[in-house]
Model the fold of this input.
Amino acid sequence: MTQTTELLANFWEGRWQYGTGSGTGLYDPISGAELVRVDVTGLDLATGFNFARAKGGTALRALTYRQRGAVLSAALKVLQANRDAYYEIATANSGTVKNDSAVDIDGGLFTLGVYAKMGDTLGDRHFLVDGESARLGKDPLFQIQHVQVPTRGLALFINAFNFPSWGLWEKAAPALLSGVPVIIKPATATAWLTQRMVRDVVDAGIFPAGALSVLCGSSVGLLDQLQSFDVLSFTGSAETAAVIRSHPAVTQRSVRVNIEADSLNSALLLPDEAQGSESFELLVKEVAREMTVKSGQKCTAIRRIFVPEALYQAAAAAISARLAKATVGNPRNEAVRLGALVNRTQFNAVKDGLEYLKTQAEVLHDGASHALVDADSTSCCLGPTLLGVRNAAGSDASDRVHDTEVFGPVATLLPYRDLGHALALVRRGQGSLVCSLYGSDKVVLAQAALELADSHGRVHIISPDAGALHTGHGNVMPQSIHGGPGRAGGGEELGGLRALNFYHRRAALQASTAVLDLLKASEVQTP
Ligand code: NAP
Done:
């Protein structure tokens, strides 16, 4: 008799509902075993979207920012109490070692906690005052005041497979704090963790009905449900992003959309840094870390490493020496530092991507040289591979390394002639999430950072004095914005209170000073 795995329920229209189809399996990337199944067949999408808007939105907007912050704090407590279960799911379904699971799980909880605390800062209000009042004419009696009020639609989140926890909470926390109900559609491959977290907070009765819904399975028809005051936040590949951008919800109904897509992030060692200098060592350490954390399945991971031409060999040797120490295999084995790629599709995509890059680059450290621990060739484990282009002219000529995101433990070392050349090469990523700079000349660091600021969401500047303090090239802190222009999607998330802008509508109120004063004093509340 064939044993079927558990079908995960969707939280839809305020109740747990099962799809009526046979479902899609989620797998263990080490053993290949099916773990659970997901399905949304037969769910009434229109009714569920309306339920979220009407019930969830109304209930959330009735609360103040402080009260919504308290709701987020209560959710955080529930999630913290269930952390062990999340780690088990991540090991089984994402194939990640404990430290890598923490980036997703604890990173998500930390972000939720930061937004929970912001509720107190915003206080007992239902709207945000935006800037100062300004006179509209000579007489000061008639003025303008901008305000921000929560949108009366819902927030639909379509997320990528690599952050089932962080991707949920970094979006849901600012949305819920703003008073906007959330529908989350996690990537199918790793939907289990998202579903389990939503299940825990829903079953604990934390949120008002309709405030948080989860759909696990196909995305078909979701965008058709979006209406003018809804917002859509997408994280995933550039290909899917293009489909989303051209959907009538966006092109005809003006649904506000935020897109976080792929990115060819870079690390740059400034000129005049000697082999073995503190800055050299900081770059080497960070590159090796970025290539191996979550097996390189991070949108912010370093893909291109720029070093002065004279340091190419030294950097290649130093990074390779660190990578060689990485133990690869089954995340359940304590000795393992690099778990698996999420599934066979990703494994094959990374292998294909490597072959594509290898046509224009040499192999400096071969991931295939790593023996697998407690795993065999049927698993989705892959060692880290460092590629390289021998000279500065090659860095110009190898267009593939500037254009192709291989979403795994892969990066390319690229030599440059001078700083101008290096900055031009960094910009060939056509807009990235993050670039990190390493050097001891603070003036040059600051100048280079400003040169790169328009083409990056974040520039991470590491001088030796910050060497032990910095938060990491790839770590997205809720205080700073996340997103990048151009091919990175053009989106912007987080950044402290800035995240709330996406979920509010800004309006200009033009009135007598007396009315505006009343309003600002919160004597007039939104109904
Ligand atoms: P993906 O294949 O584009 O899928 C992303 C999400 O879109 C999934 O939930 C997927 O659902 C859904 N989807 C697929 N086709 C759709 C359609 N036609 N309409 C609506 N939704 C659709 O991306 P992925 O492979 O999960 O993620 C890897 C990529 O995400 C990488 O390129 C990485 O750089 C990027 N990423 C970016 C960030 C960032 O913040 N910038 C963060 C993480 C990842 P199914 O899973 O059910 O197909």
